[in-house]
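Minimal example, chain plus guanosine-5'-diphosphate.
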Amino acid sequence: MSEGLQKKSEQKAIDLIKAKLSRIQPGALAQRLMEGDRNALSQAITLVESTHPAHGEAAAEIIRLCLPHAGNSIRIGITGVPGVGKSSFIEEFGTYVVEQGRRVAVLAIDPSSPISGGSILGDKTRMDKLASNEKAFIRPSPSSQTLGGVARKTRETILLCEAGGYDTIFVETVGVGQSETTVHGMTDFFLLLMLAGAGDQLQGIKRGIMEMCDAMLITKADGDNAPKAQRAKSEYISALHLFPAKPSGWTPRVDVVSSLEKKGMDVAWKMVTDYEAWMKERNLFEANRQAQDLHWMHETVKEELIARFYSLEENIQRIAAIEQAIREKRLSPFEGATQLLGSN
Ligand code: GDP
């Protein structure tokens, strides 16, 4: 393509985006979203997930409008290693919860999505029963470069779903890496799914993740696996006793479920509602959310400050010079940092 033609087609694309943007009316979209219009909710989430600066303004406006109508929900984090049965469980549990008169939104934080194109929820057929339920809303993980970026979008998506009338929010993640801490930091209740395995029961999942959980469910408690699951339950109950008590006084619960036989969904839901009551009676439910919000605000400031510092042209040059001085031992790392920070 000639340069002129390419410029023309680029301009056409820009005009198209501009025309589309001018049609977005944040007020009207937020209104439709709050009236329960699922398409409006999907559109608003797409705006939140977009990296286009003009979308950012519209998204911020929608979130501002939705915020007073958000928060009326229980936010449940769900994790477990791939293959543990997360999507099968969410399918059955979500269906059960809808039968209890609730409205369920399923979101995901998938750290592998930028590479794999989305391994959690990317394939909607994994939860087709729940996906076709009009009281349920399923959204795949946004693909973004960083866990921080995905986390921010997921937090904002939670608010939009709540404003759209979804009172039970599931945030799914895989039991590897850092994403559990992120999900724990944006949910009220953290559920760990575990397999009943042979040998050392505690292998494969990190101690820190077990320590964070409010409840643990042993999956696939059916057929030959049922007695094994019961044994695992006893072992995990003992194991969890070894962890320090939670400041709220809540003792993590352990039980077994079978998504295949649709067993244990009532037990799982009771864990959630008992926990919510426990926290609310002690005024800890809202306090925990406030602490999460403040933490998130400070984290965002830190990220932004760092990004600004490293993108300043004069800093980029000074950093290179100071790095060289440190390599040549003319400057200690600490002194180098002091000089850099002092220049701002
Ligand atoms: P995920 O990777 O954690 O989302 O796990 P999936 O829900 O995709 O399940 C992984 C495999 O375990 C699939 O082959 C499921 O059919 C199977 N599975 C899931 N739940 C159960 C269950 O309750 N019982 C049995 N027997 N198999 C299950």
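The beta strands are 74-80, 104-109, 136-138, 168-174, 189-194, 215-218, 253-256. The radius of gyration is 23 Å.
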